[in-house]
Amino acid sequence: MDSILIVGGGVIGLTLARELHKKGVKDITILESGEIGKESSFAAAGMLAPQAEADTGDPFFDFCIESKDLFPTLSSELLDETGIDIELDKSGTLYPAFTRKDIEEIRSRFEWQKAHELEVEHLSANDTHRLEPFISPESLESLFFPNDWQVENRKLLIGLKKYAEIHGIGLIENVTASKLVKTGPKIEHVVASNKNHFGADKIVITAGAWSSLIEFENSSPSFPKVKPIRGQMISFQTAKKLFTRVIYSPRGYIVPRKDGNVLAGATVEDVKFDSKTTDEGIKTLMDSTREISPALSRVPIDKKWAGLRPFTSDGLPIIGALSNADNLFIATAHYRNGILLAPMTAKILADKIVFEKDSKFLKLCDPNRSPNAQTR
Ligand code: GLY
């Protein structure tokens, strides 16, 4: 069986490593420029909410739904395999309207989702407040998506890392892959920042927002350019659990965790590789938090952080075999959906790498597509 080198130890690289191992690959190494699982995946909020985010039932929506549906199995398997509970929470997601425009938006979302026979409820203001008493009294009506869930993304990363450790998957931290060197039809080795060379039969780029920084020798990258989009987040430690479910609005979201911690996010900023928080960003988050729940906005901010989402111009992920070398694969550009899409990404890419099996989602996320072919 081939050896596989995975360049990038975020949720995509870790989930892929587990899936490859389950399919019988024994020699797997992950190369990570920082600490395993501590970059963008760690900064995420863990929402598994395709229905709250979608405007149409397109193939990308199907990809999101099918990946979300893999979480119950992933959650129970990881608990058995590692003892880590990833806190899959199926309490649903509430989408309140605060303005006339929001009302139009949620009503049209309700219509298309009903037409697609998706589960969604349209709630009055009274029912909304009964469901979540700490939501703003200004909320007018809402949609409730019982099948939009959340997961504790940091526990997911801890569980996936533990799986790798238990099964002898190599984890190399604080080493950046700088260059892929091609000899004949294959990438022969990766040159790393510490000048070491890492070779493997097959190489997979899962470097998220950093994927397009990797240089190529004797070939050119054959995938659309990926750039970072910053998301700032804050959290509040509440004395008791104020909310039961994720609350998502057109201007922000809050994610209540099992331990009383409530996350609020997120900004969407094109600021290159700057992953710091800013006063302006925190103010934007406080404004959207206040709109959703004035009660929550009166709790002092406990923590602030930011992460860099990997984005490409048509908004779709890039997943599959690359055309510039026979042994090179990629899974990146998951943008706002890295946690959500990790299980299905790992499944389809592992099937491709190990069994050369194609799928409709690999076709959708084809790295060789023209960058402007499809815009979401
Ligand atoms: N998935 C939520 C975000 O990117 O902010």
Distance between the termini: 38 Å
Radius of gyration: 21 Å
Q: Strand pairing plus helix content: what structural class?
A: alpha/beta
Strand order of the largest sheet: 5-6-4-15-16-17-14-18
Q: What is the helix tally? A: 12
SS strand fraction: 25-35%
Write out the distinct hetero groups bound to the structure: glycine
Count the E strands. Answer: 20
Helix content: 25-40%
Give the low-pLDDT segments: none
- What's the average pLDDT? 96
Sheet having the most strands: 8 strands, mixed
What features would you describe in this structure?
- The protein has 376 residues and is an alpha/beta fold.
- The chain is 32% helix and 26% strand.
- It has twelve helices and 20 strands.
- Strands 5-6-4-15-16-17-14-18 form an eight-stranded mixed sheet, sandwiched between helices. Strands 8-2-1-12-20-19 form a six-stranded mixed sheet, with helices on one face.
- A hairpin with a 4-residue loop joins strand 10 (186-192) and strand 11.
- Helix 1 (11-22) runs parallel beside helix 11.
- The protein is globular.
- 47% of the residues are buried.
- The protein binds glycine.
- Glycine binds at residues 45, 47, 231, 265-266, 309, 336.
